[in-house]
Amino acid sequence: MVTACPVNFEFMNYTIITSQCKGPKFPVKECCSAFLDFACPYTEQLNDLSNDCATTMFSYINLYGKYPPGLFANQCKGGKEGLECPAMSPASAA
């Protein structure tokens, strides 16, 4: 049973992605960097397969950015555990 996502992705600001990841070429480095900047604060929820956070987030990213389906999933490979984000520095974690 999949539970609802505890993070409300509907009203988030997606300009971090839409301002850096632009078509028609959708440069991998810029797109993946912007995607990780947006998604990394929510890795715990996004990598939890018992909720629908990842599906919900991707649907809003595609809605606001008008991206081709699967753009980030195909370009920005995570590890087998899901998204791989840089460790937060002690200052930003505080």
Kindly describe this structure.
This protein has six helices and no strands. The C terminus is likely disordered. It is globular. The longest helix has 13 residues. The protein is 45% helix and 0% strand. It is mainly α and 94 residues long.
Task: Give a nutshell description of this structure.
The protein is an all-alpha fold and 94 residues long. The chain has 6 helices and no strands.
Topology summary:
Elements: H1 15-18, H2 28-39, H3 43-46, H4 53-65, H5 71-75, H6 90-93
Major sheet description:
none
Beta-strand level of the residues, as a percent range? under 5%
Structural class assignment: mainly alpha
Mean pLDDT: 86
Instruction: Let me know the number of strands.
Output: 0
Rg estimate, integer Å: 13 Å
Share in helix: 40-55%
Low-pLDDT runs of 5+ residues are 89-94
Which geometry do the CA atoms define?
Answer: globular
Q: What is the overall number of helices?
A: 6
Instruction: Report, as a whole number of angstroms, the end-to-end distance.
Output: 34 Å
Taken in chain order, the helices and strands follow as: HHHHHH
Protein name: GPI-anchored protein LLG1-like domain-containing protein
Domain GPI-anchored protein LLG1-like: 7-83
Pfam families: LLG1 (PF26578)
